[in-house]
TrEMBL record:
One of its GO terms (molecular function) is metal ion binding. Keywords: Hydrolase, Magnesium, Metal-binding, RNA-binding. GO terms for biological process: rRNA processing. GO terms for cellular component: cytoplasm. It holds the Pfam family RNase_E_G. This is Ribonuclease, Rne/Rng family. The keyword Repressor does not apply. Its cofactor is Mg(2+). Residues 36-100 form the S1 motif domain.
Length: 475
């Protein structure tokens, strides 16, 4: 039974999914005026660059988006057409868009630029496949891809969704046709929209939200899907992620090292071209034979690696260096574990066989930023080479901890300890900082420590404490 936690606290929307008390997936979305994956825009071709087989498209944002050109597309400067955002812009790169727009639903995806009826490869039930081909062949004027989530659903429910999405597509095309300038045409709901489509099912036990707008949206989807999930409005001032002990699990995703139950561990590292994951036996030496230890550790690591890839939203090329195994049957078992673990993943993932040097390559479709992009930022004090917890994210953690302590203690005096790397941010906008953390009704002291890779919020109870902290008083 899964549980969904949806927390809205500016500038972040954070969503966590737990399955039997274990964190299954996590999504963070930051408020932005920039184009985000899933949105559809009316764009105009500004420039075509044959050398890189691409074109720059004005979609009404500060920076033109980039689109790869396929051999069948005959574009010229000044052309208007609809594009879907595949990847958001970064400091160095433009947003990536495609003319092959898609409108996803819970059970199907409508492809306006195609005519074919496709069925997810994850569906193996031949009876269902034949029924889909027969019942849906004339339902849509556009192409359809039937998702794996449709396999155990009544065909009439699937037909209804196809018809509803066809109406959405018609409206998108009409709006694009009569718009006079590049602009946003359709928003699929971002991270929350994806969660409502992908995770609300018969196994959803409860959904907890803290925002009335999101509450109404979730309620509408629960009713539409005939789900029995309990919907709870979280009304405490303390954040959902803090109340339900999710915060610690998310912060743990910053760590490169993940320890396995057997005593082994994996190391996850990011390079410019790919992610590398190294499996080590560590203290996992209980077995007599080294080969048995390697196999046992690799099996455990394979399951955890899949979980970490989904949790951290890693994408692109991922290379796993397993502990050396010579037995082909053992290698096959490890691949089977990976494949089974990724069946829960809604992203397109391809797993390649072991190479001669015991490497396994995985390619995973990019769908939004990795979690690290929301949690960390480059550190100016390290010459831009190091990373620190994002200041906006750290303020959110301090705020939740302060709210928690105010509810537990009579005192309204607190001392906050953070790394000295954040000193300039606090001093530049001190009043804004105090307002954000809801410290306006408190007496606050702020300590800066060098190389302090954490934070603390503690109550000031004794006079001796108070006397020593006077020079650090900020409010």
């Amino acid at each position: 039974m899964n549980e969904i936690f949806i927390e809205k606290d500016k500038p972040y929307l954070r969503i966590a999914i737990k399955d039997h008390e274990k964190l299954l997936a996590c999504y963070i979305e930051e408020e932005t005026e920039e184009a985000v994956p899933g949105q559809i825009y009316l764009g105009i071709v500004k420039n075509i660059v044959p050398a890189i087989k691409g074109a720059f498209i004005d979609i009404g944002k500060a920076k033109d988006a980039f689109m790869h050109l396929d051999n069948n597309r005959d574009l010229k400067k000044g052309d208007y057409f609809l594009v879907e955002v595949l990847r958001e812009a970064t400091e160095l790169k433009s947003a990536n868009v495609t003319s092959l727009i898609t409108i996803p639903g819970t059970y199907v995806v409508v492809n306006p630029m195609e005519k074919a009826l496709k069925i997810s490869r994850k569906i193996s039930n031949s009876k269902f496949i034949n029924e889909v081909k027969e019942q849906l062949k004339d339902v849509s004027t556009y192409g359809i891809t039937v998702r794996s989530s449709a396999e155990n659903v009544d065909i009439n429910i699937i037909r209804e969704e196809v018809q509803a999405l066809n109406i959405v597509v018609d409206k998108i095309i009409a709006k694009g046709k009569y718009s006079l300038k590049p602009q946003l045409i359709y928003d699929d709901g971002g991270a929350l929209g994806r969660i409502l489509r992908d995770y609300i099912n018969d196994g959803t036990k409860r959904i907890i939200v803290d925002d009335i707008k999101n509450y109404d949206l979730v309620k509408e989807n629960i009713e539409k899907l005939h789900s029995s999930a309990e919907l709870i409005m979280h009304e405490e001032s303390r954040g959902i992620f803090d109340c339900y002990s999710i915060e610690k699990e998310i912060l743990a995703l910053r760590h490169k090292k993940v320890v396995l139950k057997s005593g082994g561990y994996i190391i996850i590292e990011k390079t410019e071209a790919l992610y590398s994951i190294d499996v080590n036996s560590g203290k996992s030496t209980g077995e007599v034979a080294i080969s048995k230890t390697a196999f046992k550790t690799n099996l455990e690591a394979a399951e955890e690696i899949a979980r970490q890839i989904i949790l951290r939203n890693l994408s692109g090329i991922i290379v796993i260096d397993f502990i050396n195994m010579k037995d082909k049957k053992e290698k096959t078992e490890v691949i089977k574990i990976l494949e089974a673990a990724f069946k829960k993943d809604n992203n397109k993932t391809t797993i390649y066989p072991f190479t001669d040097v015991n490497l396994v390559q995985i390619t995973r479709k990019k769908r939004g930023k990795d979690i690290g992009s929301f949690l960390e930022e480059s550190c100016k004090h390290c010459g831009g080479e190091g990373a620190r917890l994002k200041w906006d994210y750290l303020k959110l953690l301090i705020k939740n901890q302060l709210i928690k302590l105010k509810g537990q203690h009579i005192t309204k005096e607190f001392v906050i300890t953070i790394d000295s790397k954040y000193k300039s941010e606090v001093q530049k906008k001190l009043t804004e900082f105090i307002t954000f953390i809801e410290g306006h009704d408190c007496l606050l002291y702020l300590l800066y420590l060098d190389n302090f890779n954490s934070y603390k919020v503690e109550p000031v109870i004794f006079d001796s404490q108070r006397k020593n902290l006077q020079e650090y008083k900020i409010y």
